[in-house]
Design brief:
Layout (H helix, E strand, L loop, with lengths): L8 H22 L3 H13 L7 H13 L3 H13 L7 H12 L4 H13 L7 H13 L3 H13 L7 H12 L4 H13 L7 H13 L3 H13 L7 H12 L4 H13 L7 H13 L3 H14 L3 H13 L3 H13 L7 H13 L3 H13 L7 H12 L4 H12 L8 H13 L3 H13 L7 H13 L3 H13 L7 H13 L5 H10 L3 H15 L1
Length: 529
């Protein structure tokens, strides 16, 4: 084995310096000098010039602390709190922090405040937390100033006061404390305790983000992604999401997954998307768990894995996953079919406002699928989904109001529901309105309006609307008589299998000139081709 390379002159000098310090401190410490004992403990704790030893650090810190040296008392508290060289012991940590805090040691006052706030090692007490944070904050401790701001913000241990919260956040933020910069940014965003100023909000977020504070990096990324105050910039958004994601920020990991999934600002990359979803899901991010479920269900078609991820998200109350889990139970995918379990999960999602779950519950109560038939409950669930502008629910609400045997017959209300759905392009509602104007039901008979509604539905492939439009064109109702248009619409109705359409098509063809008939058949062939 070749001999070890000689150490550099600088390294030798440093080692000699540490050795001299160690010998000097050891001699003084053994004579009972508290500062030397603390210094020796510090060297053992950090392994400076000697082999690191938490046990010996505790020994020397303990001797200095027993003599009332606040630095040593604080360091003992930290070691007890973190379980370094000793079993984690919050009671002992609180004891030593108290000793140092009462001597005015700001860092100990701050840590003692945290223990009171969390109820670790002593009874939770917001008032005592407030007291010790205040003492440390008044000495300029930025962490305590930030926490004091948070207590005023949330009204813990003190009446809620947004102006005071801003005051303390600003003191800490101006010292460069990233969390306070982030909190100050949030307050400028929502105008609590300060005049709303979203430019200032972005500026403080950037200061915190540039120090590596992940929540601020996430906030900055959102602004770049959405063009919120900052110019829309996908590359900047991805860069900031990545910085936060690499620190383990779950929402940033999830958003990066979405970006790769949808190819927003980067080439679509499903594997990269999955990798980020997995990281976020591993931290309990419900939306990431849901998206992994979707991948396994619709991509890999692994229903067993899909239900595992859906269940994780559903257990956290994520409504989209609760709905998907209900679908798997209904269809028996990844588990035995179970109508009752399906209904259970649909209801969980519906109670949180999931519109598809509300609509599906309406269908099940209307038809008695998995539950006793109950048209009143069906109408209620349709109503809830309809209030979220879900067009299929607005249509079905209209259908139930149209039924004489329904829970609340009301043809005028039915017409209003159809109008709301039709305005969103719902073809069944458009056809229903066409019929109403065609027959003069609840509205003045108006063939032109009927034509317009039938045409909207027909263009979306509604077969009966195509049939009725063809008949109107053949008779000149609602517009000029146009046998060629009639032939086209009736041909579509025949292809869809509408009863009577073939007879009407023959009758229309018999009224047409051969040249017109040949031309329209060529048009239909071109459309079909």
């Amino acid at each position: 084995m070749p001999p070890a390379a000689p150490r550099s002159t600088a390294a030798q000098s440093t080692a000699a310096h540490y050795t001299a310090d160690y010998l000097r401190l050891k001699g003084q410490a053994e004579k009972g000098n508290a500062h030397a004992q603390h210094g020796l403990g510090f060297m053992y704790f950090n392994g400076q010039g000697i082999e690191q030893s938490y046990a010996l650090a505790l020994h020397w810190y303990g001797l200095a602390a027993a003599q009332g040296l606040e630095h040593a008392q604080y360091n003992l508290g930290v070691m007890c709190q973190k379980g370094q060289g000793v079993a984690q012991d919050f009671v002992q940590a609180a004891h030593w922090y108290q000793q140092a805090a009462e001597q005015g040691y700001a860092a100990a006052q701050y840590n003692l405040g945290w223990l009171y706030a969390k109820g670790q090692g002593l009874a939770q007490d917001s008032g005592q937390a407030m007291l010790w944070f205040s003492r440390a904050a008044e000495q300029g401790d930025a962490g305590a100033q930030n926490n004091l701001g948070m207590m005023y913000d949330n009204g813990k241990g003190v009446p809620q006061d947004f102006v005071q919260a801003i005051n303390w956040y600003r003191k800490a933020a101006e010292q460069g404390y990233a969390r306070a910069q982030f909190n100050l940014g949030l307050r400028y965003d929502n105008g609590q305790g300060v005049r709303q100023d979203r430019q200032q909000a972005a500026a403080w977020m950037r200061k915190a983000a540039e120090q590596g504070y992940a929540p601020a990096q996430f906030n900055l990324a959102l602004r770049y992604e959405n063009g919120d105050v900052l110019p829309q910039d996908s590359r900047q958004a991805i860069s900031w999401y990545r910085r936060a994601a690499e620190q383990g920020h779950a929402s940033s990991q999830f958003n990066l997954g979405l970006i790769y999934d949808n190819g927003q600002g980067v080439p679509c990359d499903k594997q990269a998307a999955l990798a980020w979803y997995v990281k976020a899901a591993g931290q309990g991010h419900a939306a990431a768990q849901h998206n992994l479920g979707l991948h396994h269900e619709h991509g890999a078609q692994d229903y067993t894995r899909a239900q595992v991820f859906y269940r994780q998200a559903a257990g956290q109350g994520f409504p989209a996953a609760q709905y998907q889990l209900g679908l798997l139970y209904e269809h028996g995918q990844g588990m035995p079919a179970d109508a009752q379990e399906a209904i259970f999960w649909y209801r969980k999602a519906a109670d949180q406002g999931h519109v598809r779950a509300q609509f599906d519950l309406g269908l099940r109560y209307e038809h008695g699928q998995g539950v006793p038939q109950d048209l009143a409950l069906a109408l209620e669930w349709y109503r809830r989904a309809a209030e979220q502008d879900y067009a299929p629910a607005q249509y079905m609400q209209g259908v139930l109001h149209d039924r004489d045997d329904g829970p609340a017959p009301d043809s005028q209300q039915a017409c209003a529901c159809y109008c709301r759905a039709a305005a969103q392009g719902h073809s069944l509602a458009q056809f229903a309105l066409g019929l109403r104007h065609d027959n003069g039901q609840d509205v003045p008979q108006d063939y032109a309006a009927a034509w317009d509604w039938y045409a909207l539905a027909a263009r979306q492939g509604h077969a009966r609307a195509q049939m009725n439009l063809g008949l109107m064109a053949a008779s000149g109702q609602g517009g000029p008589l146009d046998l060629q248009q009639a032939y086209i619409w009736l041909s579509m109705a025949v292809a869809a299998g509408v009863a009577g359409a073939e007879k009407s098509l023959r009758q229309t063809a018999a009224r047409m000139r051969e040249t017109d008939l040949a031309r329209v058949r060529e048009q239909l062939a071109a459309i079909a081709g």
